[in-house]
Amino acid sequence: MCGIVGYIGNRPAESLLLDGLKRLEYRGYDSAGIATLHEGQTYLRRAPGRLDNLKKRLQNNPALGNVGISHTRWASHGSPSEQNAHPHQFGNIALVHNGIIENHEELKQELQQLGHQFQSDTDSEILAHLIARYCEQTPDNFAKAIRQALTRVEGAYALAILDTKHPDILIGVKQACPLVVGIAEGENFLASDFPAVLSHTRQFYILDDGEMAILTASHIQITDLEGKRKTKEPITLNWSPAAAEKAGYKHFMLKEIFEQPQAVIDTLCGRLDHDKIEQAFLGIQIEHLSNIERITLIGCGTSYHAALVGKRYIEALAKIPVEVDFASEFRYRNPLIQNNHLVLGVSQSGETADTLAALKLAQSQNAYTMAVCNVLDSAIPRLCNQSIGTFYTHAGPEISVASTKAFTTQLVSLYLIALLLGKQRGTLNSKDLQRRLENLYSLPMLLEKVLEHEASIQQVAKNWLKSEHMLFMGRGFLDIVAREGALKTKEISYIHAEAYAAGEMKHGPIALIDDKMPVVVLAIKDYLYEKTLSNLEEVKSRGAQIIVLCNEDDQKLRSLYPDALLIPSCPPDLLPAVAILPLQILAYHLANLRGLDVDQPRNLAKSVTIE
Ligand code: F6R
Questions:
Q1: Nearest residue (CA) to ligand 1, atom 3
Q2: Where in the sequence numbering do the catalytic residues fall?
Q3: pTM reported for the whole predicted model
Q4: What distance in Å separates the CA atoms of residue 75 and residue 24, rounded to the nearest whole number?
């Protein structure tokens, strides 16, 4: 998502910073900015939109100096405008920030009472004000002022900070967002990602949470947030720039699978305050939702599968009737739009032609429209912002054609929407809401646990990589997960994969079973477990080769079926997000072991902007 580049040395900072931002463009952004220091003055330049807009501004008004910070922003708090773009400056302090400050409202009110006025809608600007105040108390010790200010801050941040009074220092701090220090001869760098500065150095310190780096042109000091010095071993990266974009993973798909715990945190960031949903940061006009009597969820491919899960969430938690349709079917079936009907489009790219057209049709028939989307300001959000609005998933750029982190973050977004609707309608009491939100906080950790099983999933893939067909089956949420698993498998490994609701097998598809058919049975210890096991027996007795997706503690299934994809026990609502991960990893390894172009499978495009 957002990118940070900082420089201190003997060369003009402007062009180095712009070059670094250019190398982070692949991550996506909607505004950019830079600040440099020269002869006691801060040169701050920002622009909405592409980097070229910023470059144009710099052509007319160059940013002078050999020290500077820069940023590409993907908007979360506030629109992608110049004022909201980073760096933010107050007094002597200019800074760029990745992450979310959770107690920003409280800090803002406190600063306002002290007479501070804010120029932007961002949480980040508050940090510039806060640090500037502490600098007044310790004007000779810039680093100490930052440390003191940060004791007041709750949330996630990677920061690069300048002080006009200390033009020979550049400071970086990290807490729960990535930040690295690039080490070079007579110059040093800060960056949120290696590719930004890889053309200048291959030596890095990777900062850990709670660490501060104090950079001069010739020296780097690392401390903790109490000011205690730390010794750190630098690492040397041998990655090519292309490998660096993949953070060392062989493919974007694998990187994006492993990014899912963080992507979920990013979806939740700023939207929850302990047991409350922060309505102001959802991006939708909640008051209109209280009128809604019926909902149609639409999407294509993976987004359609997320919509199927969304239906179950909304019906269970908010008791509103929901239908789900392929966008391509909805738009041509003369759908019945009724009073107070909401059509909610789910789309990673925000550009999918069928979803866009279906939403336009709904709007033309006076339905409310709304989007769950990943790409900021794309066509679908622009359309829906004329009605209820857009709930952004904030998953970060998804580059691999096969959708992974977009799916899990769509599930989280739809879950939050269902909780919100449930609360609004009184179908969910505060205690129940609180319990479900607490469970939701555990999701990133549950996803991490699944990722720990990658090696054993790869082994399962090795055992089945010559398969020509595969069948996936499950019940309840796991029926939908099975469909998404089959889609992932077929689109990247080219194995013919289908999914069926386990209870449907005996109504036809069981005829396909013979001793060459691998069947992935999704059997979690829940209220449908015994029924799924009966369906497993049905296919097994017809000769099927069984792969199970089961709980880690299911010794019975694990001993009977060594090809087991394991997941930890989890709250029922989180099951779809947890259970899809092993299937994404299985599909990835099947495709990789078959020597296929995982990130760009044949015949497919990332954004389907034609019918
Ligand atoms: C599958 C996949 C596609 C997309 C579909 C919709 O891995 O990526 O099925 O989900 O093309 O795309 P969006 O979500 O961009 O509307």
A1: 301
A2: 2, 606
A3: 0.78
A4: 16
